[in-house]
Every structure is written in C-alpha cells, then in structure tokens.
Design brief:
By secondary structure, the chain is α+β, with helices and mostly antiparallel strands. Among the domains are: 1-18 and 34-68, no CATH class; 143-184, no CATH class; 186-214, no CATH class; 238-345, Sandwich (Jelly Rolls), CATH 2.60.120. The protein is 33% helix and 19% strand. The chain contains four helices and 15 strands. The strands form five sheets. Strands 6, 8, 9, 10, 12 and 15 form a six-stranded antiparallel beta sheet that branches. It has a three-stranded antiparallel beta sheet with strand order 11-7-14, with no helix packed on it. The longest helix is centred in the middle third of the chain and has 52 residues, at 112-163. It is elongated.
C-alpha cells in the first residue's frame, strides 16, 4: 500500500555534525548550531521520501505479480484441457521418454541417462581407437627406422666390400651381398708393421691393408735408412776415455744366423797410444779383443762373423790404455738379414 500522509519537506542541507559529536550527543547548556538541525531535518525528509517511493514500487510489483499468477493458472488449465497429438517424424506432439540405448523405436525421446550411456560407449570407443592409432603409429615409426637402418647397413656392407677390392652395389639383394661376403678370405697371422718391409702392404688377424715400416738397420740419431742386406754406420765418432771395456753401440737381431760385423778403431790425432775394441753378444765378450795404435784420422778396420740367436744383442765395447787418450770408432757396420732395432748409443 502506498503512503497517503504528506511528507515533512525540508530542503536546507545544513552541516553534518562530526563523528565525535555524534557519539557524545548534546550536552547540558550546549547551544547546537542551526545548521546541525537543518542537516538532521533534511536527512529525515529524504529518508521518508525514499521509503514512500519504494512503497509505491512494491504496490505496483504486487499488482503485476498477481496478474502473472492468474495468467499462469489459466495457462495450466488450458494445457490440461489441450488435446496434443502424439509426436512423429513428421508431426510435432507429445512423446514418451525412454532410457533404452538399443531400441529402434522412432516415437520415443531419450532421457539423459540414455544419452550418457551412449556417450560413455562412444568415449570408450574413441579411447580404444586412439590407442589403436598410437600403436599403429609406433609400429610405422619402428618399421621406417628399421628400413632406414637396413639401407644404412647395406651401404656399409657395400663400402666394406669395395674397400677390399670386391665389386658390390647397393642395387644388389642381401642374398647376393651375403654370398660375396662369405667368399671373402679372412687374413690370419700376427705380423706387425715393424716386421714387414717399409711400403709393403699386408694383413693380419686384426686388420687389413696394413703397411710395413721395417727399413732394416738404422742408427738412433743417425741419418739415412737401410733395407735388408744393406749396411749401416754411425755418422758421428764414437769414443770413450774408459780404461775398462765400455759399451758404446748395440743392436738387437730378430732372426738367428751369422752376421758379418765391421768396425774401425783408432786413437786421438797423431797418437800411437794402444786402444781396444771387442764385439759382445748380450753383454758377454764374443769376438776377439782388437788393438789399434793408429792416430786419427787414421784408423784400423776389423771384420768378424758373429753367430747369434733370435733377439740377441750385438754390442761394441771400447776402452783405452791411457785415460787421457780416448779410443775412437768412426764407423760400425752390421750386414743384416733382419734387425729388430737400430743401434743404441751409450755415453761414456
């Protein structure tokens, strides 16, 4: 119901009291400012005015709501009395609900339960299809990788066959390549590059296409290279002031046999002091003690045939009769069949 009483209109806004004043209120003997009263009366008027306006709105809403309620009641009665035909594929109408998911009827409406059941089955099918697709993709990837690996391995096999002089091509079948591989003779033996003449190629049980490095006897620190059957000599004078036999040169022999050894021997320039030299095998005296009184640059040359076993060491020992007069060897030669190492020089 709307208000009928006239509002106490007061439009002067006044001044709002402070928060402290609102808390303490008017005190005895206090004379409040007129503006405070104006503020109070203005706010009271505005509040009552708002209530009156809202009350009028409520009255309108109540009236409209009642009208709507009556319309709904009438609609319900009309629906109950309406003659709605059954729905079909060609006509609109009422239909019965059904939760079946395996029916072929066309005059039923599916319930949410039926829809959910169908959805669940469809989701399961999608998941199964996704799993099958993933497995198919994985199988395809593995098959592609296997094919690529086969191509790469075929290239490697063809390259390996070509490297050993066997004609092969990637256009050949694996059966053809396997036949060629089975016909390859595998090398055996334990020869090393150091035992094979320099420049000669060979194979052993470990590798093919090896190149020999053996160049016969060669002096450590010397110059030039030699081959089997050649001779070698130290280009520098070998000398010592020792008065007892002192090893100056040594070489290790691979193969057993008798080797001819030559060496020169002399004293210092213009000297006739006796000096000595002797061939040793494995640091044991083997040759004859040789004596020379020749003074440099004159020397005496000695020749001996020395028989050794495999890996024996042939050495030249020098010494002098006077510690102030050195024994000198200008050159030493071994006529080699096979020397395992070059000469080793010894200081002293």
């Amino acid at each position: 119901m709307a208000f009928t009483q006239q509002l106490p209109e007061w439009n002067a806004p006044g001044v709002e009291p402070s928060a402290t004043q609102k808390q303490t209120g008017f005190q005895p003997g206090m004379k409040p400012p007129a503006q405070w009263f104006n503020w109070h009366l203005n706010w009271s008027y505005l509040a009552l005015k708002e209530l009156q306006e809202k009350a009028a709105e409520k009255t309108y809403v109540d009236t409209e709501f009642e009208t709507i309620k009556n319309d709904i009641t009438q609609l319900q009665e009309d629906v109950q009395n309406a003659d709605i035909p059954d729905a079909s594929l060609t006509e609109k109408g009422k239909t019965q609900l059904s939760s079946a998911t395996d029916s072929e009827l066309e005059d039923r409406a599916s319930t949410p339960k039926a829809v959910k059941s169908a959805y669940d089955r469809g989701s399961a099918g999608v998941t199964a299809a996704g799993t099958a697709q993933a497995r198919a993709d994985s199988a395809y990837t593995e098959a592609t990788a296997a094919k690529q690996l086969g191509v790469e391995q075929k290239n490697n096999v063809v390259a390996a066959l070509n490297s050993i002089g066997v004609s092969a091509s990637t256009s050949e079948t694996w059966t053809q390549l396997i036949t060629k591989m089975s016909a390859v003779v595998r090398a055996t033996g334990n020869a090393t590059p150091a035992q094979v003449l320099a420049g000669a190629t060979f194979s052993n049980a470990s590798a093919n296409g090896l190149v020999g490095t053996y160049v016969g006897a060669q002096l450590i620190g010397g110059v030039g290279t030699l081959i089997t059957g050649d001779t070698t000599s130290d280009p520098n004078d070998i000398y010592t002031w020792s008065t007892t036999p002192f090893k100056k040169l040594e070489a290790t022999i691979f193969q057993p046999g008798t080797y001819r050894v030559t060496f020169t021997l002399g004293g210092p320039y213009g000297s006739s002091t006796p000096v000595y030299g002797r061939i040793y095998v494995n640091d044991v005296a083997r040759g004859i003690t040789r004596t020379s009184t020749a003074g440099y640059p004159s020397v005496t040359t000695f020749i001996e045939d020395i028989t050794v076993k495999a890996n024996d060491k042939i050495s030249l020992y020098l010494w002098t009769s006077n510690a102030s007069k050195q024994a000198i060897c200008i050159s030493m030669t071994v006529y080699v069949n096979f020397i395992a190492t070059g000469f080793n020089r010894f200081m002293g």
